[in-house]
Amino acid sequence: MSNALVIFYxxxxxxxxxxxxxxxxxxWRMAEVLETRPRRGATGTLRCVLDSALRRRPRVRYEGPSxxxxxxxxxxxxxxxxxxxxxxxxxxxxxxxxxxPAAVVSVMGGTGAPDAIAEVSRLIGRAPLLSTxxxxxxxxxxxxxxxxxxxxxxxxxxxxxxDVVRPAVLSPxxx
Length: 175
Ligand SMILES: Cc1cc2nc3c(=O)[nH]c(=O)nc-3n(C[C@H](O)[C@H](O)[C@H](O)COP(=O)(O)O)c2cc1C
Description:
alpha/beta; Rossmann fold; seven-stranded mixed β-sheet; 6 helices; globular; binds flavin mononucleotide
């Protein structure tokens, strides 16, 4: 099946670029999680830190089609302080009843994906279909493209098999 929806949150634009690339590679639709109170500058960064430290759920709004109509969702989110970015936490918590099987892409400087994957699993109530992580460097220099292509292909294969709910880490660089 090819009917996946890519849902991203991005503070500084990197996760947006990943979502756009995945959608262009797979011809999937894209949707965005936005904050009702946008963050900027030093205060915004401090809020990121506190959101992660306290696992806060900032208020968000969702722009996109209902995930219910799709076979799978791909959640693309930055890592903050070794944890899932707060706005994606809020989105999953609010919409978990509407989510089909989810794959997760963690976008980060270097480390922190395992805690984010564990939190997504707790929030949804089951392990993601697949997960991977991408470093900012690989996104900036374009070298993430092959890894992302393989990830999309794996999601299609997972959807096509009956064994759709299985925890897996695709990339050798995933942490
Ligand atoms: C407050 C804050 C905390 C961060 N903490 C981590 C971290 O713990 N590990 C990491 O690898 N990257 C960390 N980063 C880097 C982001 O994950 C990285 O810049 C990511 O590409 C941002 O995605 P975005 O541009 O879509 O917002 C942090 C960034 C911010 C702003």
